């Protein structure tokens, strides 16, 4: 069965760091573009970062560029989001997302809560 399981969320102070992980199984991870989305209370889900299948290209939302880094390890079927210099505005549920244009499939994780607060 297909699974995307996020971990690493939690409570952190402003200026702190967290590293999110998303472990994938049940599909050919190395052929999928992986992304992180987030959704804050009362707001729309937004794209945070994207990384192509062999890490050729990364893209970031303007709000996180320079602070967040997306990476992946295809041997471990895992995508990461390193979040530094966290701000209260980063508080949200963070979701792992995979997409294959080749297979025409999209998968979502269940989300992990990130709270940035003093």
Q: What report would you give on this structure?
A:
By secondary structure, this protein is mainly beta. The protein has no helices and eleven strands. The protein has strands spanning 3-7, 10-12, 18-25, 33-39, 46-51, 58-60, 68-73, 78-83, 92-100, 105-108, 112-116. The strands form two sheets. Strands 2, 4, 5, 6, 9, 10 and 11 form a seven-stranded mixed beta sheet that branches. The chain has a four-stranded antiparallel beta sheet with strand order 1-3-8-7, with no helix packed on it. A hairpin with a 4-residue loop joins strand 9 (92-100) and strand 10.
Instruction: Tell me the strand percentage band.
Output: over 45%
Quick one: biggest sheet?
Answer: 7 strands, mixed
Unreliable stretches, pLDDT < 50, 5 or more residues?
none
Q: Assign a percent range to the helix content.
A: under 10%
